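ok so I'm stuck.
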Amino acid sequence: MTDQDKNHLIELIKAGEKLPKEFIYKLFSDEEDVFLFWNGRKEDVTNIALPFHSIEHIDEPRKENDKKQPSLFETDFRGRQLKGWTNKLIWGDNKLILSSLVNGPLRAEIEKEGGLKLIYTDPPFAVGADFGFDIQIGGETAEKKQNIIEEIAYRDTWGKGISSYLTMMYERLKLMHNLLADDGSIYVHVDGRLNSYLRLVLDDIFGASNHKNEIAWVRSASHNDAVGQYGKVKDLIFYYTKTSTAKLNILYTPYTAEYIDAEWNKLPSGRFYKAENMLDPRGSMKEFNFHGTIARWRTSPEKMEELWNAPQTEVPNSQGRIKIGRDGNPTKRCRIIFLDELPGVPLKWSLSVGQYLKELKGIVVVVGNTCT
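replied:
not stuck anymore, here's the structure
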């Protein structure tokens, strides 16, 4: 900033005037190349810790007499859980609940078990102010009017437009970031009207380098909204990790019979195998002679020799894990692989988000629109 800029800025502050936006960028230009700003942005977050009171039990797990209950869970004579952090549906404002998890006694219990591994959050979309609707019951129409809680929720979320929404989301996402373990991850569900805004907020909090995937949540129909535009058939789920140490447990589905019949050979033992192409697809590897076959192989001579000297298989015309041609030399499609050694087809998110959450090893929190 020039001396003239600095003097002008001082005069505006003394007069209680609003600062031109260009001064905001000038003040921070030496610290960050790009930064995110909106009216109402605050760096501080709620740090309140409220107690959780039990309102209702909806399950009564069977007490196993032959197994000792983990010390983390305190149960009554029926096996019902009395204390602990698992299997809880917590009702209330998710900002206060997240703050209570971050700052309250449950934080120590969660971290003792390895920390929070995953958060899935489904924040509000740009749905408008009217939460009322009509419903047909027995041939008559019943009207559900917007209540005071919904009006307050709308005011806090959309009262000042996008800036209100960003302020609401920023504080909650900061709390979620605080709560996550270093090897944890977060999935944020958002629609096409807000995805560009929320992506920038997530980059700001979690770091752009920790953005892993943008997952398409595809609908089966466009809900009759294709008027003067293409139908809206998908939402997005942003997948971020807290650090580079985050874990991702890939799930797999079995190969189809059609794929197996088309690609694999069946041995008398019932095992399926095929020979994989071992040529360098880019042609950048150094050419060398591998037991009589000269080619640009996709791996080093040492790795090829390991395949050659591997235990012999039942595949005909082979040496170790290498397929041999009629001339007695390795074929260029030579590496022998077996179907039963492969995990399967990576599971697509479009199949079931629930399947992934079920298989995830660790502690999971699901954060809803206004409650967790």
